[in-house]
Design goal:
By secondary structure, the chain is mostly helical. It is 73% helix and 2% strand. A two-stranded antiparallel ribbon has the order 1-2.
Length: 366
């Protein structure tokens, strides 16, 4: 990391804090704070669904599973593909509920405040565990870029003890200031960042393949795909893994897809990102489905990046010891100064676009 990288990071943090300050001036009541006055169109709904559903753990986990299992590793995230079309139906449910949280719906539907309280406890625990996974994933990327420790006053402090509180404070500040409106506008910005991180490593990786294994004077960028096939075993390009040798055989993919379809309908943030904040049922449907399909396309980019990393760094001792660092090592080795900071900002965007929504939904549940 260089001065240019840190300038990019600081600039990004200032922008999201500015959005929080701007959004705070638009809040008039509780519904404005928790649901943005139910006035968001399909574009904002799409980026909200995309941002809330795409955490920093997703590209990192996809890179790890694809690095170890090949293209079939994309199913660690892509299993939600089969549930996505059903969002066209569920978006209308959340819009018609007219509740602020799903906890309110449980109280009304089953006439039990205790069940609403139990759902609140479930929601808080769910977000604590899920968010901690995202922070852990950020650490796996930041460590290869920034080092495992930072020096303050002559003392070496573990990176996570600095990075996690800083990110947490920034999310709390703009989330508390602007509520779900701030979360949605930052999700729009951060969604663009997430899409960028999904593809930015691919051209640099292809160029590195040509330089290392090909002839740069005659081979173009696309020759990197041919070289990747030459360097990586054919089995690693199979979309469905073999039952005895892969993490993702067909029966596991089917099982996870069914579980995803059953469980997603009651995830606490879905009443907000799933259509409850939309200005109409049509905007709710289009936003929820489009935002989640966008994530499926990004998943392909994450898996492809992992195969490029496998072709380049299969013998890297750091990755052999911890495949979770695949994305971070690729960012360090392939990107130029300034772009490394942008990559870290993109991953922070993936984290913050989820955490801000989860924080606000949790406060609404309480």
């Amino acid at each position: 990391m260089t001065a240019a990288d840190y300038i990019v990071l600081v600039g990004y943090f200032m922008v999201v804090l500015g959005i929080g300050w701007w959004a705070a001036r638009r809040i008039r009541n509780q519904e404005d704070y928790f649901l943005g006055g139910r006035r968001f169109g399909k574009w904002m709904q799409a980026f909200a669904a995309f941002g809330a559903g795409t955490g920093a753990a997703d590209p990192v986990n996809t890179a790890r599973t694809s690095f170890t299992s090949g293209m079939s590793g994309m199913w660690s995230v892509m299993s939600w593909l089969f549930a996505t079309p059903f969002y066209w139906i569920t978006g209308v449910w959340y819009r018609r509920m007219r509740h602020i949280t799903l906890g309110d719906w449980f109280v009304e539907r089953f006439e039990s405040k205790r069940l609403g309280a139990a759902y609140t406890l479930f929601g808080l625990l769910f977000y604590m565990v899920y968010t901690s996974m995202m922070f852990s994933a950020i650490g796996k990327v930041a460590a290869p870029l920034m080092g495992d420790t930072l020096s303050f006053g002559g003392r070496q402090i573990p990176l996570e003890y600095v990075l996690v509180p800083v990110i947490g404070c920034i999310v709390v500040i703009y989330g508390v200031l602007g509520g779900v409106t701030a979360a949605y506008w930052t999700d729009l910005l951060q969604g663009i960042f997430i899409i960028a991180l999904s593809i930015v490593l691919i051209p640099f990786g292809l160029e590195a393949l040509v330089e290392r294994f090909g002839d740069p004077s005659t081979d173009g960028l696309l020759a990197g795909f041919r070289i990747m096939h030459e360097q990586v075993p054919e089995s690693m390009f199979k979309i469905v893994g073999a039952p005895n040798s892969s993490e993702f055989p067909i029966h596991r993919i089917a099982s996870v897809a069914i579980i995803s379809l059953l469980g997603v309908a009651v995830q606490p943030h879905f009443i907000a990102t799933g259509g409850g904040t939309a200005k109409s049922e049509f905007h709710a449907r289009v936003g929820l489905v489009a935002g989640n399909f966008a994530k499926r396309f990004c998943t392909i980019g994450w898996a492809l990046t992992a195969l490029i990393v496998l072709a380049l760094y299969a013998d890297n001792l750091e990755l052999m010891a911890d495949p979770d660092k695949a994305w971070g090592v690729a960012s360090r080795e392939l990107l130029a100064p300034g772009l490394r900071g942008l990559m870290l900002a993109c991953l922070l965007a993936a984290l913050m676009s989820s955490v801000d929504c989860y924080m606000i939904v949790s406060s609404a549940l309480v």
